[in-house]
Amino acid sequence: MRSYLFPTVAIAALALATTVAAAPNRFEAVVLGELNRFRADPAGYADVLRSYRPRFEGRLLRGNGNGEIDILTNEGVSAVDEAIRDLRGERPLPRLDPSDMLARAAADHVADQSRSGAVGHYSRGRGPGERMKARGGGPYVNEVITYGHHEPAGVVHQLLIDDGVPGRGHRHSLLRATHRYAGVACGRHPVHRTMCVIMMSQTPDGSPPPPPKR
């Protein structure tokens, strides 16, 4: 089955949907684990992305089994090769600790789009910063979203390859050294079957980061 992938630009919000339990399921926990695997050795992780190259037929990326859909990409294998080159020069990054509040705000977005079938960073007129504030946190967050992946590793790979996204905003978000906390929420999507929302921040609740030490 073919599905068009709708890329979404990562948002750094500087500025309530249905209540969803924030306790991560195994899929979400593995997504966070894969993120930390990548951040521990970005240069080495470039070799993982090489596995995508044989799956391309022109611009069509064949699903990797387990019911994963085929995705018609914008750039084909060239975006994969660019990601590999970029990661080769990156140094290890701090580990992302789980944040309950970030996960709840992400889960609110999944709950809304799982009903509406919408894509993007806004639900009911609220972006990631507004959703965090509705949860009692602060707006200093960064959010990335994927659609259509049935494997946790595929979620991270899509964000790093960042096909069709000008400026590679998702890739730069995952490479941001100031991120220290993350919340992951994944669920069903009526158009793309699955979606994952990852919210990251320098603080566990999206509050302003502490001033630098002198």
TrEMBL record:
<keyword id="KW-0732">Signal</keyword>
<feature type="domain" description="SCP">
    <location>
        <begin position="83"/>
        <end position="194"/>
    </location>
</feature>
<dbReference type="Pfam" id="PF00188">
    <property type="entry name" value="CAP"/>
</dbReference>
<dbReference type="InterPro" id="IPR035940">
    <property type="entry name" value="CAP_sf"/>
</dbReference>
<protein>
    <submittedName>
        <fullName>CAP domain-containing protein</fullName>
    </submittedName>
</protein>
<feature type="signal peptide">
    <location>
        <begin position="1"/>
        <end position="22"/>
    </location>
</feature>
<dbReference type="InterPro" id="IPR014044">
    <property type="entry name" value="CAP_dom"/>
</dbReference>
<feature type="region of interest" description="Disordered">
    <location>
        <begin position="109"/>
        <end position="135"/>
    </location>
</feature>
